[in-house]
Structure formats: structure tokens, C-alpha cells
Write a structure and sequence with these properties.
- The complex is a heterodimer of chains A (589) and B (378).
- In chain A, a hairpin with a 2-residue loop joins strand 4 and strand 5.
- Chain A has a 6-stranded mixed beta sheet with strand order 6-7-8-3-9-10, with helices on both faces. In chain A, strands 20-21-22-17-23-24 form a 6-stranded mixed beta sheet, sandwiched between helices. Chain A has a 4-stranded antiparallel beta sheet with strand order 2-1-4-5.
- Chain A is globular.
- Chain A has 18 helices and 24 strands.
- In chain A, helix 3 runs parallel beside helix 5.
- With 589 residues, chain A is an alpha/beta fold.
- Chain B is α/β, with parallel strands linked by helices and 378 residues long.
- Helix content of chain B is 67%, strand content 8%.
- Chain B has 14 helices and 5 strands.
- Chain B has a 5-stranded mixed beta sheet with strand order 2-1-3-4-5, sandwiched between helices.
- The chains are: A alpha/beta (589), B alpha/beta (378).
- Chains A and B meet through helix 2, strand 6, helix 3 and helix 5 of A and helix 1 and helix 8 of B.
Chain lengths: 589, 378
């Protein structure tokens, strides 16, 4: 701690520059002229798209890398010169926190306590506090490899906190964590800042998390776009944010797609049955899509300011539309996927416990739930990758237990992880998947051309796919899943780990596909993304807790003070209520 | 932080890391497989190979001489429990059988056998399939034994025709330079030490890089040398367990003579183990992926220990270039030390220089590891 009176900033970066050399020999600038201060006791958020330099910055603070130019002073110490002195005093939680999975919760904690030289007396004081904070008390004897994703993150945080560090660095601590665990993690972080005056620097892909911080630093391609209080950044969009009610006969999703087509629109997202959009440029520019629409001004949020900034930084929004060569035939709105009392047991454990839902043609159906809720297991059964234990399952009119191969021809599956061959080029990957789907000759060539054109991959066709930037990998994976023109798409957490821009791009494409009659089932744990869906089902511990349109599901939540209940509030309310009641068939809408 | 307090903190950190490593060894099936199960398997395998006597070897007896003496000699192969004789009068037939792998050897009694025998200059040709060098040597020895028995029988019967011994002319096909020495125990110890020392440490260190556990570990007061210590001590202990298993097996299972002293054996093994650990840590720090590191380790330690250490293939009979390559790898010095200690005793003119070279390698590897292992990423 700095002596009173002399306020040394906890982190002071001056003109930082750091470059990397790729395998291909090309030089990538990760940070360029970054100058920022974080005062002792402050809570600073680092936000920005993938590749903005957030992780590199935190590693420079932690002394895990040296800058090419510029200086980094942490707690008054020059990091490049004395990294060990910094590492003796700070807590750091990397993106993939290095928990030892074959050690128990207690053993992991003991290891970090001993490495940090925490005395026995301090341990006695600290452990109960950490256990209470993280609610890991009942699990101290469990191997950390057997913890859920959210619990692992909390244990990682506890390990970083065991010495009561002066400065805590958290690199995307909530990535891939469900809303409940995310809320708990943030309660811990806010408590630390408020009660213990710990300086915290956190990077995040969730823009609403930045709103909780005292300061936000917006990074983009290695440069700082702006830094300041989140509401200052939100004010950049002052007077530009509106809510539009879709006219009769149009969905919010449809209106949003039209709005995104207009030049003057910076951003548009569905929200609570309406469309929230940011309008920039000349105020008199006509937006045709708004001709028949009731529009009301809205209070800007951090996210609105962030999107405005990125747009100004010249990040042109890609025209993410997909036009199918041959849209699936629209034969009314028949049921495409029918699931009745679906059960999947793993030993004595019911991963999926009597789940029923149906999805109609051209519908966008969302499965939401925390980690381990059974979303991926349900998906694998739908795709015929995993045998069912009980119940019926009809996909595209076929019982998958009997005719798997024929049903599979009609479905496209996008797995949770990037499942393409990293060493093959973009074109080679597409050729492989085309052959795997049985495409040949002229049709194969036509489909690959279509994919390269529609997903704007033409310029990168010869690049090994592992060198693709994050958003492009996603595009390639989606292109591969669409090669055989499936009428039904399964997308398993397609936006997990993607930045806000890539996520918007993705939803725009899915939107375009469903507009053309493709049916899609999506899992996600970004709750606001549920707004894109026609209908959603909320899953927890293998059961469906609620089902209906986003508006119906949102109605489950109590109104929050000062703002409309969000999908996330609804989700937390529904899951907490169900858990409190030991899982009754809660609120099926 | 310096002086006694600094040292105490350092020791506490090392102890915490060693404890963590030990938990991982015990709980991770792959560590236990490589560290404990593999040595036991190797011991049993080698032991099985040793107790497997070669019996009923299919051989072709080419009887080109119809004389009573020749027929008598040929009959000797039928009576022997070691052979399963096929009689023929043509060398061509025998050769074809050999190429078809129907027989593993040919005993050829030439047309002038009886006449030469009378002159005291008889020859029997033994041809052995050399693809399995070990088996070939055994077959050759058995065949010589069978002929020697026949000679002795004739001599005791006072057969007047025998004026001189029968000369055996051996040929081994397909593996002309069959001059290997099968040193069971040195082989075992080298294999086990290499597996535990290099292979296991490479895997565990590369795993930490791969899973990102080191990134969190780096941002603590822990120092590089402490991480290296924690990766050395537990596996050193495991290696010593392996050594004891091999030594006990040698002494009480296979009754291998042990002429040197136990402490020279232990000292030499400790040195080699440190070299193996050093190589393992060096490779994994340089490569950082489990797959690449294990492949490199296989090529850099295991294969040289198997093929270039002189325990299967005698280095003296290899080309100079191969000998020069073998000199680079530590395994040959260890094998030389082991062979000396087991079979000859503490021969200091051999032990000291070889141990000195291993010690030099340890020093070089420690320095190299301090240099390549840094608390930095990318």
C-alpha cells in the first residue's frame, strides 16, 4: 500500500507497444501507444473486440511479458525491470485459470497459500472468509476437475485472493459462465473493491459488466479508443438511441434486420419485443425501414456508446446477410422437431430429464441454461450423435432412433468448439465437408463458390484455417454446416467466447437464414441473445423450467428498480425459484 | 526478503510444489503407468524372454552323404528335444524351406562327409536364420552341442574311423554382424531410468504449459529454480524406486551376478537419472506441447537408449559415424558403467571417466534449463 498522502497509481502505463510474430512471419501489433492510469482502490474494465489487446495488456501488468516500447509501472515498480517484485504482490487470474484438476479444492487453495507465503494464522482467518464468499465450503474435498465451470472460476478467484493482493488482475473471469455464476462472481468482485479497497482490473466481453466498473477502457486493435466512467462513454450515444415498435405483421427480428441494412443505423438489437437502435450521421437522413414505425427515444447504455465508438473507429459493419440458392420449401408451418419426454441417463445421473418441446418450420428456437443444464446433451441426441435413454424424438418427420442417416442429410450441425481442420486451408475444409455430405462434381463446386461468396471468405480461401481471425473461423464453420443446404440447423453455443461484434454478425446471418425458411435451434448463455429467438426454453439440471416467446419468459421476472426486467433477470429468477422449490414443474408457459 | 527468512520461504514454496506434484503423480493414471507399471512390465517381459528356452526348433537336415556315419549324425538331431528335424537330400529344398520360414536352420552334411571324416577333416555346415539374432545364436549353440555329443558318443564307442574332431562351419544368414551381448539388467535399468527420467518429466512439464497452469503459477512469488526443483525431486524419487525394483529383480528373480558395489551402482544411476530429467525438462520448456515434446523425447532419449547405448547392438561393431553419434547421448556411458559394475566390479579407470562425462552433462543441462525456463509467455 502506498503511504497516505502520496498517491501512486496502482497501474501506470505509458506509450506501451507490444508486437508478436505469427508462424507465417507476419508481425501483429497487439498494443500500440497505450497510456492509462488505474488509481489505487479503483475498479477498471478493459473492453474491446477479440484481438483488441486486453490479454496482452494484463500480461504486461503481471510481468509475464516485456513491452517493446514504453513503460509499465505497477505499485510504483517498473515491471520490465523487476517482474518478480510485482508477482510477489499481486493476484492474477488468467483466462484459462490454471487450476490443477487432479487436486482438490482445498489442495489448490493450500498450494497458492503456501506459494504466497500466507501464514497459518492468516490462513485460519482467510479460508472461512473465502469459502463463504465463493460458497465452495461444502466442496473442499472435491477434485477441482469435477467442479462446474462457474465453480472453477470461483475457485480460481479464491486462489488469486488467498494472499489479499494489493492489485487483482482478472482476464475474462466470466467467459463461458452462466448468468447465475456470473452474478455471484461480480458480487465477490464488487465486495472486494468496496470493503477491502483492492484495486481490480478486469477484462470482459460482456458490455453490461463494464457498467459496474468505475472506469472503462475501450481497446480496439491495440489502441485505446476512449477511457472514462462508463456513463460518460454511454453519453457518446446521447440522443441517438431509440426504441422502435415493429409494425403489425413484422417481428422485432425482422425490423432489426431491415434497420441494419440502412447506412445511418449504427447498431440495432431486439429488446423486449421492440428494437433498440442507434442512429448516427445526418439526422435528416431518411431510413426507409422506419417509415411506418413508432419510435421513442431511449436512455443510452454503455453498450450504445461502445458501438458508436467502434463505428467511428472505422469498423465498418459487415453486410452479414446470407442468400440461399434454393430456400427450403415452405409447406405451411408444420412441426419440424418434436421432442416428447426425452430422457438421457449417464449412470444414475439424468442429464436430460423428461424434456418436451417442438419447433416449427422457419422458427428460431433457443435453448438457454447454465453450464451442465443438459443443452449439449439434448443437441447430441437431436443430431443422432448420442442414443436416447427414453422418450421420442422426431426430426424432420423421422424417428432418429430408426433412420439416422436420412435425417442427418437434412440437418446442419455447428458444434460448440471450432471443429474444422486447422492445417487445411479454407477451401480445403469446405471441399472436405462437401465430400463428407456427398456433394460431387458441378454441384460441389457451385456450393463451395456459394459459401466463399456468401461468407466473404474468397480473399482468405488459401489461408490455413487456424490462422483465421476469430470471427472468420465462425463464418467458415457456419459455411461448412450449410454446404448441403440443410433445412434445419443446430447451433451449439455458437457465440460462446465471441466478441460483441462477431456475435452481432452471427445473429444477422442466422436471422437472414430463418427469414428464408431455414429452421434453427440455438443454445446460448448470453441471455440477451434470447431476444433474437421466436421462442425459448429455459433448462436447468436437465429439466425445462419455462418455455415460450421471449416476452412470455421475461414476464417471470420481477420488475427491477429503475429499469425493465431483462431476459437475464428472468432467467435468474426462474432458476432460483426452481432450485428453491427443489424443482417442481416450474412455470411452463 | 533475504537471509534465513528468504530461505525458509523458498523451502516452503518448494515443499508446496513437491507436494502438489506428488498428489498428481499418485492420482494421474498415466504417471503411475509410466512410473510403476512400466518397470514391472519390463521386468516381467525380460524375465519371460529369459526363461523361454528354445525347444523344438524346426531345422532342415540335408543329408547329401548316405554313409552310416552321416546317417548316424543326422539321427542325432531327431533324438534331440531341441530340434524338430526335417530330412532332405537337397540343399535347394532346404533353402526354399528356410526362405518360407518353415525352418529356422539348416544342418548340411556334405557328400564327402564320410571320406573327410576318415581323413580327420570332416565338416558340417550349420546355417541359421538370423532375423532373430538372439534365437539364431541359441540355435547355433544347440546345433554345435548336438554335433559335439555325437562326436563324444563315437569316441566313447571306440569307433576306429574317428581320427579328428568334426569342424563346424557356422553361417548366419540375414544378419552377418551378429555380435550382440544381451545384458539383461543393464538394459532394464537404462530403459526404466529413461522412461521415468525423461519421458515422464517431459509430459508433466509440457502439460502445465498446455493447460495454462504455469501462467497462474508464474504470477506468484515462486522462482524459476523452485519450479525446476519441484519437477525434479518427485521424479527423482520415482526413478530410485524403479532402480530398486530392477535391482531386486536382477538379484532375486534372475540371479544375475553383481560384482561391483551397490553405492557405485546407485551413484551412477542417480547421475544418469539427473541427465534424463534435465533433457526432459529442457525439451518440454523448449517445445511446450505434450505431443511434440513426447515425440522429441522418444527420439532424443528412448531410442538412443535402446539402440545406441550398446546394450542391444555392440557399439564396437558399428561404423565410426554411428559411434560418434552414440557418444553424444548419455545412455552409452550409463550402459558402460552398468556393465562394468555388474559383470566386472568397481573398475575405477572405467567408472571414473564415464561418471565424469555424465556429471558434465548434468551441469550443462542445469545451466541450459535455467536459461530456457523463464517466467515469461510468448
Amino acid at each position: 500500500m502506498s503511504p497516505p498522502g502520496v498517491r501512486v497509481p496502482a497501474v501506470a502505463a505509458d506509450g506501451l507497444r507490444r508486437t508478436f510474430r505469427r508462424d507465417t512471419g507476419e508481425i501483429v501489433v497487439a498494443l500500440d501507444g497505450v497510456t492509462l492510469r488505474a488509481e489505487a482502490g479503483s475498479l477498471t474494465a478493459l473492453v474491446g473486440p477479440d484481438g483488441a489487446g486486453k490479454t496482452t495488456f494484463l500480461r504486461l501488468v503481471a510481468g509475464l511479458m516485456a513491452p517493446d516500447a514504453g513503460t509499465m509501472t505497477v505499485l510504483g515498480i517498473d515491471v520490465a525491470r523487476e517482474p518478480q517484485r510485482i508477482q510477489d504482490r499481486i493476484g492474477y487470474m488468467p483466462q484459462r485459470f490454471g487450476l490443477y484438476e487432479d487436486l482438490t479444492v482445498q489442495e489448490n487453495l493450500d498450494l497458492y497459500a503456501d506459494l504466497h507465503g500466507v501464514s497459518a494464522a492468516d490462513k485460519r482467518r482467510q479460508y472461512p472468509r473465502l469459502m463463504e464468499m465463493t460458497a465452495l465450503g461444502p466442496f473442499t474435498g472435491r477434485l477441482s476437475g469435477n467442479l462446474s465451470g462457474g465453480m472453477k472460476q470461483k475457485l480460481g478467484l479464491a486462489c488469486a485472493l488467498v494472499r489479499e493482493p494489493e492489485l487483482l488482475l482478472l482476464d475474462e473471469p466470466t467467459a463461458g459462465v452462466d448468468p447465475l455464476s456470473r452474478q455471484e462472481l461480480w458480487q465477490i468482485i464488487l465486495h472486494l473493491v468496496a470493503e477491502q479497497r483492492t484495486t481490480v482490473m478486469v477484462s470482459t466481453a460482456y458490455l453490461d459488466e463494464a457498467e459496474r466498473c468505475g472506469r472503462a477502457v475501450v481497446l480496439h486493435q491495440g489502441k485505446i479508443l476512449t477511457q472514462g466512467a462508463p456513463d460518460e462513454i454511454a453519453r457518446l450515444a446521447d440522443g441517438k438511441v431509440f426504441l422502435a415498435d415493429p409494425p403489425a405483421g413484422q417481428t422485432a427480428r425482422g425490423l432489426q434486420a431491415h434497420l441494419l441494412g440502412a447506412q445511418a443505423i449504427v447498431d440495432a438489437v431486439p429488446e423486449g419485443g421492440r428494437v433498440r437502435f442507434i442512429r448516427d450521421g445526418a439526422a435528416d437522413a431518411r431510413v426507409d425501414a422506419l417509415a411506418q414505425v413508432a419510435v421513442a427515444p431511449a436512455q443510452p447504455r454503455f453498450e450504445d456508446g461502445f458501438m458508436t465508438l467502434l463505428r467511428r473507429a472505422g469498423d465498418s459493419r459487415p453486410a452479414s446477410v446470407v442468400t440461399l440458392d434454393k430456400p427450403p420449401e415452405r409447406q405451411g408451418d408444420g412441426v419440424v422437431v418434436e421432442v416428447r419426454d426425452l430422457v438421457r441417463m449417464f449412470g444414475n445421473f439424468a442429464a436430460v430429464d423428461h424434456v418436451s418441446f417442438e419447433v416449427r418450420r422457419g422458427e428460431l428456437f433457443g435453448l438457454l441454461g447454465p453450464n451442465g443444464a443438459g443443452k449439449t446433451t439434448t443437441f447430441r441426441m437431436l443430431c443422432g450423435l448420442l442414443p436416447v435413454t427414453g422418450g421420442t424424438l422426431r426430426v424432420a418427420g423421422v424417428d432418429l432412433r430408426r433412420a439416422r442417416a436420412s435425417a442427418r442429410q437434412r440437418i446442419g450441425y455447428l458444434a460448440q468448439r471450432f471443429s474444422l481442420y486447422g492445417d487445411l486451408s479454407v477451401v480445403e475444409n469446405l471441399e472436405f465437408f462437401a465430400s463428407a455430405y456427398g456433394l460431387r462434381g458441378g454441384r460441389k463446386r457451385a456450393r463451395i463458390d456459394w459459401a466463399l461468396r456468401q461468407f466473404e471468405l474468397g480473399d482468405l480461401a488459401r489461408l490455413p484455417s487456424r490462422h483465421l481471425p476469430g470471427g472468420y473461423k465462425q463464418r467458415l464453420a457456419m459455411a461448412a454446416a450449410l454446404l448441403h443446404e440443410p433445412a434445419l440447423l443446430f447451433l451449439d453455443e455458437p457465440t460462446s467466447g465471441a466478441d460483441p461484434l462477431a456475435r452481432r454478425e452471427f445473429w444477422q446471418r442466422i436471422n437472414a437464414l430463418t427469414e428464408q425458411g431455414v429452421t434453427a435451434i440455438v443454445t446460448t448463455h448470453f441471455m440477451e441473445e434470447a431476444e433474437y429467438c421466436d421462442r425459448v426454453a429455459i433448462l436447468d439440471a436437465g429439466r425445462i423450467l419455462a418455455q415460450g416467446t421471449p416476452a412470455e419468459v421475461r414476464a417471470h421476472a420481477r420488475r427491477q428498480e429503475g429499469r425493465e426486467a431483462t431476459m437475464e433477470d428472468a432467467f435468474i429468477a426462474i432458476v432460483e425459484e426452481a432450485r428453491a422449490h427443489g424443482h417442481p414443474e416450474a412455470g411452463a408457459a | 526478503m533475504n537471509g534465513a527468512a528468504g530461505l525458509a520461504a523458498k523451502l516452503r514454496r518448494i515443499r508446496a510444489l513437491v507436494r502438489k506434484e506428488s498428489f498428481q503423480i499418485v492420482r494421474d493414471p498415466s504417471s503411475m503407468i509410466i512410473g510403476v507399471l512400466m518397470p514391472v512390465m519390463l521386468i516381467l517381459l525380460f524375465g519371460f524372454a529369459l526363461s523361454l528356452d528354445v525347444t523344438s526348433v524346426p531345422v532342415a537336415v540335408v543329408l547329401e552323404d548316405p554313409s552310416p556315419a552321416a546317417t548316424d549324425l543326422a539321427a542325432g538331431f531327431r533324438l534331440s528335444p531341441y530340434f524338430n528335424a526335417h530330412y532332405t537330400t537337397s540343399m535347394e529344398t532346404a533353402r526354399a524351406m528356410m526362405l518360407d520360414l518353415k525352418v529356422d536352420g539348416i544342418i548340411r552334411i556334405r557328400p564327402d562327409f564320410a571320406r573327410q571324416l576318415a581323413l580327420g577333416d570332416a565338416e558340417v555346415q550349420i546355417v541359421v536364420h538370423g532375423s532373430d539374432a538372439n534365437r539364431a545364436r541359441l540355435i547355433e549353440a544347440y546345433a554345435q552341442g548336438a554335433i559335439a555329443q555325437w562326436s563324444a558318443r563315437r569316441a566313447s564307442a571306440g569307433q576306429p574311423v574317428t581320427t579328428g574332431p568334426v569342424a563346424v562351419q557356422s553361417r548366419i544368414w540375414f544378419n552377418e554382424a551378429n555380435d550382440s551381448h544381451w545384458f539383461l539388467v543393464p538394459g532394464l535399468i537404462v530403459m526404466v531410468m529413461t522412461l521415468i527420467g525423461a519421458f515422464l518429466t517431459t509430459m508433466v512439464m509440457a502439460r502445465e504449459w498446455e493447460r495454462g497452469t504455469l501462467e497462474a503459477l508464474f504470477v506468484t512469488p515462486v522462482r524459476v529454480d523452485e519450479i525446476l526443483w519441484s519437477k525434479t525431486l518427485p521424479y527423482f524419487a520415482l526413478g530410485m524406486v524403479g532402480l530398486s525394483l530392477c535391482f531386486l529383480a536382477a538379484k532375486f528373480l534372475f540371479f544375475v551376478p553383481f560384482r561391483g558395489s551397490l553405492w557405485v551402482l546407485t551413484g551412477a544411476s542417480m547421475l544418469y537419472l539427473l541427465v534424463a530429467l534435465g533433457i526432459g525438462l529442457f525439451i518440454s520448456s523448449a517445445v511446450k506441447s505434450q505431443l511434440a515434446a513426447s515425440q522429441l523425447t522418444l527420439v532424443a532419449t528412448y531410442l538412443p537408449a535402446l539402440m545406441l547405448s550398446g546394450f542391444i547392438f555392440d557399439l564396437r561393431s558399428t561404423p565410426l559415424a554411428v559411434q560418434a553419434i552414440a557418444d553424444v547421448f548419455p545412455a552409452r556411458y550409463f550402459v558402460s558403467l552398468l556393465q562394468t559394475v555388474f559383470l566386472a566390479g568397481d573398475i575405477w579407470p572405467v567408472v571414473l571417466p564415464e561418471a565424469g562425462i555424465l556429471l558434465g552433462m548434468v551441469v550443462a543441462l542445469v545451466a541450459a534449463n535455467r536459461f530456457v525456463t523463464r517466467k515469461t509467455l510468448a
